[in-house]
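Aim 2, interim progress. The first record below pairs a target sequence with its structure tokens.
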Amino acid sequence: MTSPNPQSENPKTITWSSRFAYIMATTGAAVGLGNIWMFPYVAGKHGGGAFVGLYLLLVLTLGIPAMIAETVLGFLGRKSAVGSLQALAKTYRKSAAWQALGWWGALGLVLVLAFYSVVAGWTVAYAIKALSGEFLEVGPIQVQRIWLHFLANPWEMLFWHSFFMFITLWVVARGLHGGIERASKIMMPALFLILLALMAYGLFAGEWRQAWQFLFHLDVHKLSSMVVAEVLGLAFFTLAIGAGCLMVYGAYLPKTKTGIVSSLVWVALLDVIVALVASMAIFSLVTSA
């Protein structure tokens, strides 16, 4: 991991412009397919309420403390994930091998980007299709044909993937304040509004009572050791723990009035809200089908 613009910005001097900017950017790093796609899928797979209750418990007891620990490492190191671990190991006379965790996290992020960018390209393409009216007055069979036709055209998928990557690189190249902060302040509130609109649509057009019962009726008999392991992995994935993102963002926190704990509690809360709102929107419509 590197800083947003290592040539012109140094976390020793450049910091987040506000607590709100840090919370939005960190929430943006945490929120993703794990919340909107994987969380509803795994909740449906494991019976809803038991999974949701365990997820919330693990986020509170393990997720938030792990977020704080990783962020503090970046806050103390003031460098990239690799650099912070290397510097802290040297300062406290520990093995230099600790920096391997930073490289491991960076490799994980590259692998995640490999499929995130493809799905993001699909999303952009489908947004264009939706705005053009391609999905108006078509049934499920026609929608499936559109999808299969899209998959059968690798050049179209490559174009949208490349388009998404260009936008991503452009935002990162603009640095901490002009790129990541500005994009997060606009896109994260927009995401919340879109999800709330989708949930509202699901509540009026679907069966919200059944969705609520499914998601929040706790049945501990559906839990098993395999479910606990899967939920723990999902909790850490949705909170962006262990990949170095939180460490890098922590390096740009100001040394005074940081409020690390309270800020990360807000990040975790917003992350959970996104997952639950997305699930309500999806299951309200699924249960009415």
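The second target in this work package is listed in the same format:
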Amino acid sequence: MSIENINGTKIFLQEFGAGDPLILVHGSWAEHMEWPFVVPLLAPRFRVSVYDRRGHSRSRRAGDGPRSVHEDDLAGLIEAFDLSPMHLAGSSYGASIALGLAARRPELAGSLIAHEPPLLGHGVVDGNAEPQPML
């Protein structure tokens, strides 16, 4: 269990297992314990990191801020623990954060799993003409 000062905010992080680094990014209404059934299955093969995003559970109750702030926090964690390139997996808004980070900082992401990311209203595809026909 670790609390790190990342981008001026205390961020709670917990790690399990050993192997290739994998970080799990939780959604808006969750915390690091969103993954209790997944972590034990992944830990034998991966160094699994779970954390409480800014403003959630054991991390500092700082203002939530735009998605880019959460992306910067995630990048800060990856860099602080020398985890790049790493596997990213996110659910819901956490998936949007992982997608945004991978787009901005591709050198940090070795692979990406995005489960049900809310893409509209969060700047991921807003204003981008290319996906508009599909939407």
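Residues 2-115 form a domain with the Rossmann fold fold (CATH 3.40.50.1820). This observation will shape the mutagenesis plan for the next reporting period.
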